């Protein structure tokens, strides 16, 4: 676990590594510009004007003081030029304020638009990826970092633009200072070098710390959720778990707090030591300017201009380097984000694919299929051979963990078999385009999603393009018996479901299930898969749901997983799985005559009902 110093070292990103992350900055800006070109160029323009203003303001300030000194000495006072200069300085101050406001306005608007854009892209990209990628914890961490840094990316944008702006300020001020007193440059270097050293020393460390803690942060989020959520509240209360969860949360957070506190203290400590050196150099420069003014080499105006310029230069340069560290740190997150967006899913990379047959002619065939989950050594299923014929209703039965859902995931091509192959009408399913292939199926999983959206949306999710097709939604609801749920809802189809939102209504397990089944009917799928779809229905509703299912899906191919044998027996054929292998397959009668596991389990359940 990366809670030790050792793992922090392992995750440490070098200063060079931080530099390398800057290569993502051009792409980042291209994307921002694409989001809203007008706002982007307005921002750049305002920043350019704002960058030139400081030196102009200082020069006008110097001219004002020189003019004042001149007028004090003059016998006949002529204040016209002075008024003009003061008016110019006033105008410049107003312009500077306007530009700053324009910058923060455009920064904010661009930032908002960009963060909407990135969130949308992350959602879309996630849907393109394979299940094995999504279930991989390393990948999940990457996704987490890509997602978390949405606000960080907005800060990065304004930091980089400010950096460019400050670079212009620094060069214009430098030009002014060099024109008067080139020696000051050496003192300037001495005054900022300590800051640079400090930044290099700590660069990357805080990012490394945050990065090495991605897993733990996930754990913290989870503990926070488990400890304070309506879903877990019943068990947490009943088992008195809140102290245990709170302590576990606190212990883990404290470890992180202590590590980051140590880092922050070191940074602050060294920062103050280096600052003393820097401030010393600044006052050295100040003395030099004062002496030259007393000696009559500089005018009073030069004195104000130089000391003002020098002071600004120092703070701008310091800011430049501090910001540089912040930029490289955030750019490392940018790397996570772009790497995530660039992830390929296997089907994308493969060559031309075959068009899918409009109608399934023969059916599916599993040939010697074996499968191990990624990063696992154990065979979950092996030597699987069976046919799912076109139009057939096949049921899978078997004990928990026998591999039933895994076979469904393989059939749906969420995973590729480790050995053997799956054929559709004698052609390996790999030959077909994956997403088109998946469109063939209407599936209700055991752990189907309870979308906390409206009832209508929950059903229409089966074929979202048809959300406006009321007839289709009505028909799906009738087939699945969800119409009974709808008539109980005060707002009918527009009823918000779940407890998360205002006026939301939570449903019973069985009611949710009826809605989920409606979702499967919504799609005019070639193959229907119901993975324990009726476990929460009462006995009467279950029988009714299955009778309907068989009638309504006449001619369609279907796979049903169920632990209830009364349901299973109405399937055309039943496949019994044990420890990842096919134990027996046949009709209910055949399996009863076989007198093996199926007959044993069937009789066991039948006795229970007597
Ligand atoms: N994503 C995964 N990664 C690794 N192993 C997994 C994964 N999903 C399931 N398994 C393992 O594969 C085996 C078969 O699981 P599967 O879900 O296919 O069983 P099942 O027959 O559907 O069980 P149940 O009746 O309990 O739903 C189990 O031992 C399980 O631990």
Keywords:
ATP-binding cassette, subfamily B; binds adenosine-5'-triphosphate; Rossmann fold; 610 residues; cell membrane; ABC transporter transmembrane region fold; four-stranded antiparallel β-sheet; transport; six-stranded mixed β-sheet; 10 strands; alpha/beta; 10% strand; 3 domains
Describe this structure in words.
The structure is a single chain. The chain has helices spanning 5-10, 15-20, 25-35, 37-73, 80-128, 131-135, 137-148, 150-180, 184-202, 205-212, 214-227, 230-238, 242-294, 300-341, 346-349, 404-411, 434-438, 455-460, 470-479, 482-488, 509-522, 539-552, 565-568, 588-594, 597-609, and strands at residues 363-371, 381-389, 393-398, 419-424, 427-428, 441-444, 527-531, 557-561, 573-578, 581-586. The protein is of the alpha/beta class. The protein folds into three domains: 22-214 and 254-344, ABC transporter type 1, transmembrane domain (ABC transporter transmembrane region fold), CATH 1.20.1560.10; 356-440 and 526-610, P-loop containing nucleotide triphosphate hydrolases (Rossmann fold, 3-Layer(aba) Sandwich), CATH 3.40.50; 451-523, P-loop containing nucleotide triphosphate hydrolases (Rossmann fold, 3-Layer(aba) Sandwich). The strands form two sheets. Strands 6-7-8-3-9-10 form a six-stranded mixed sheet, with helices on both faces. It has a four-stranded antiparallel sheet with strand order 2-1-4-5, with helices on one face. Helix 22 links the parallel strand 7 and strand 8. Helix 9 (184-202) packs parallel to helix 14 (300-341), helix 13 (242-294) packs antiparallel against helix 14 (300-341) and helix 24 crosses helix 25 (597-609). The model is unreliable at 1-6 (pLDDT under 50). Adenosine-5'-triphosphate binds next to helix 16. The site of adenosine-5'-triphosphate (ATP) has 13 residues, from helix 16.
């Amino acid at each position: 676990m990366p809670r030790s110093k050792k793992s922090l070292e392992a995750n440490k990103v070098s200063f060079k590594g931080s530099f390398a992350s800057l290569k993502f900055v051009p792409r980042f800006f291209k994307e921002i510009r694409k989001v809203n070109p007008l706002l982007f160029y307005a921002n750049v323009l305002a920043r350019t004007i704002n960058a030139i203003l400081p030196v102009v303001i200082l020069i006008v300030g110097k001219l004002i003081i020189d003019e004042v000194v001149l007028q004090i000495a003059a016998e006949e006072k002529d204040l016209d030029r002075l008024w003009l200069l003061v008016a110019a300085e006033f105008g410049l101050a107003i312009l500077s304020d306007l530009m700053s406001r324009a910058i923060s306005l455009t920064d904010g608007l661009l930032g908002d638009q960009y963060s909407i854009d990135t969130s949308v892209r992350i959602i879309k990209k996630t849907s393109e990826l394979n299940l094995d990628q999504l279930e991989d914890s390393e990948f999940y961490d990457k996704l987490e970092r890509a997602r978390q840094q949405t606000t960080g990316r907005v800060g990065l944008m304004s930091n980089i633009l400010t950096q460019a702006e400050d670079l212009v300020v620094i060069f214009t001020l430098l030009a002014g200072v060099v024109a008067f007193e080139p020696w000051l440059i050496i003192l300037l270097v001495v005054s900022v070098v300590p800051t640079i050293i400090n930044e290099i020393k700590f660069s990357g460390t805080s990012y490394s710390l945050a990065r090495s803690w991605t897993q733990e942060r996930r754990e913290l989020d989870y503990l926070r959720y488990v400890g304070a959520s309506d879903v877990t509240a019943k068990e947490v209360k009943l088992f008195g778990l809140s102290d245990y969860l709170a302590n576990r949360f606190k212990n883990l957070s404290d470890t992180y707090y202590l590590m980051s506190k140590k880092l922050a203290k070191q940074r602050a400590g060294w920062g103050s030591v280096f600052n003393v050196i820097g401030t010393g150099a600044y006052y050295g420069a100040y003395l030099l300017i004062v002496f030259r003014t007393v000696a009559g080499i500089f005018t009073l105006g030069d004195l104000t201009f130089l000391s003002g310029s020098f002071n600004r230069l120092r703070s701008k340069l310091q800011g430049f380097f501090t910001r540089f560290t912040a930029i490289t740190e955030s750019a490392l997150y940018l790397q996570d984000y772009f790497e995530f967006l660039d992830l390929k899913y296997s089907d994308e990379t493969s060559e031309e694919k075959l068009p899918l047959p409009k109608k399934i002619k023969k059916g599916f065939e599993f040939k010697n299929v074996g499968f191990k989950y990624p990063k696992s050594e154990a065979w979950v299923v092996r030597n699987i051979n069976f046919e799912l014929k076109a139009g057939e209703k096949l049921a899978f039965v078997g004990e928990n963990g026998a591999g039933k859902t895994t076979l469904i995931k393989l059939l749906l091509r969420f995973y590729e078999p480790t050995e053997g192959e799956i054929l559709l009408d004698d052609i390996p399913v790999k030959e077909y385009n994956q997403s088109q292939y998946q469109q063939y199926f209407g599936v209700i999983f055991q752990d189907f999603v309870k979308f906390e959206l409206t009832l209508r949306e929950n059903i229409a999710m089966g074929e979202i393009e048809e959300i406006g097709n009321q007839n289709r939604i009505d028909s799906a609801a009738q087939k699945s018996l969800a119409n009974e749920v709808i008539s109980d809802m005060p707002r009918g189809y527009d009823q918000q479901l779940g407890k998360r939102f205002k006026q939301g209504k939570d449903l019973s397990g069985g009611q949710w299930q009826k809605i989920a089944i409606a979702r499967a009917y919504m799609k005019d799928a070639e193959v229907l898969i119901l993975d324990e779809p009726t476990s929460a229905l009462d006995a009467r509703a279950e029988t009714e749901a299955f009778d309907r299912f068989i009638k309504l899906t006449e001619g369609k191919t279907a796979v049903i997983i169920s632990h209830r044998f009364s349901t299973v027996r109405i399937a055309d054929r039943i496949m019994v799985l044990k420890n990842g292998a096919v134990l027996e397959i046949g009709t209910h009668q055949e399996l009863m005559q076989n007198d093996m596991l199926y007959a044993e389990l069937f009789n066991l359940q039948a006795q229970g009902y007597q």
